[in-house]
Design brief:
Elements: E1 2-6, E2 15-19, E3 29-38, H1 41-47, E4 64-72, E5 84-87, H2 100-103, E6 118-122, E7 126-128, H3 135-139, H4 141-153
Antiparallel strand pairs: 1-2, 3-4, 3-6, 4-5, 5-7
Protein name: Alcohol dehydrogenase GroES domain protein
GO molecular function, one term: oxidoreductase activity
InterPro entries: ADH-like_N, ER, GroES-like_sf, Zinc_ADH-like
Length: about 170
C-alpha cells in the first residue's frame, strides 16, 4: 500500500511516500480503505511545528478521512466489513467530558492518520457515515464538526437566551 509519513517537520520535503505491507488488525482494530481525505489548517500547524501537541516521529498525517471497513479484529463489535466510516478527531473520546488523556490521542498527530490507502484504527476511533453523504463530503466533517460542536458546547456552553451567529452587517472570514 502507499502511505505518507512526516519524516521531519518544517516543510513539505518532510512528507515522504512509502510502500508498506497492508496491516492486519489486532483484536480491537479495524482496517479501513481510505476513499477520501481533507486537509485542515491543523495539518499545516503540525508541519510547521506551531501545533500545541508534538507529533509522533514518522506519523502518518491528516486527521480527517472516510472510507470503507475491509477487515476487523476478532473482538471488534462497533463496525463490520463493508461499513462506511470516518475517523474521529479525538480517537479515544467516546462520551462525557473530554479528558487530557483523550485529548492528546489525535489522528494525524500523536496517532497515525488518514493519508494512506489503508488506515489501521482502533474501533473506538470510527463513526458510521449516513448514506446521504459521499466519502468526499464525510471526509470534511470530523475536524469542522468538532470545531462547531466545541464552539457551542466548549468551556462556556450556550444557554437559553444566548445569541449566536454573525451580527447583521458583519462578515466573517475563514
Amino acid at each position: 500500500m502507499k502511505t505518507y509519513h512526516l519524516e521531519h517537520l518544517g516543510d513539505l520535503d518532510g512528507l515522504v511516500l512509502r510502500d508498506q505491507e497492508v496491516p492486519t488488525p489486532g483484536p480491537h482494530e479495524v482496517l479501513v480503505r481510505i476513499r477520501a481525505t481533507s486537509l485542515n489548517r491543523r495539518e499545516l500547524m503540525i508541519l510547521n511545528r506551531t501545533y500545541p501537541l508534538p507529533s509522533k516521529p514518522n506519523v502518518i498525517p491528516v486527521s480527517d478521512g472516510a472510507g470503507e471497513v475491509v477487515a476487523v479484529g476478532t473482538q471488534v463489535s462497533r463496525v463490520a466489513v463493508g461499513d462506511r466510516v470516518a475517523g474521529s478527531y479525538f480517537a479515544r473520546w467516546t462520551e462525557g467530558k473530554l479528558t487530557w488523556d483523550q485529548m492528546i490521542q489525535q489522528l494525524g498527530c500523536t496517532l497515525d492518520g488518514m493519508l494512506t490507502e489503508y488506515a489501521l484504527l482502533d474501533e473506538q476511533a470510527l463513526v458510521h457515515l449516513p448514506d446521504t453523504l459521499t466519502f468526499e463530503e464525510a471526509a470534511t466533517l470530523p475536524c469542522a464538526a468538532l470545531t462547531a460542536w466545541s464552539a457551542l458546547n466548549g468551556p462556556d456552553p450556550i444557554r437559553p437566551g444566548d445569541i449566536t451567529g454573525v451580527l447583521p452587517g458583519r462578515t466573517s472570514a475563514l
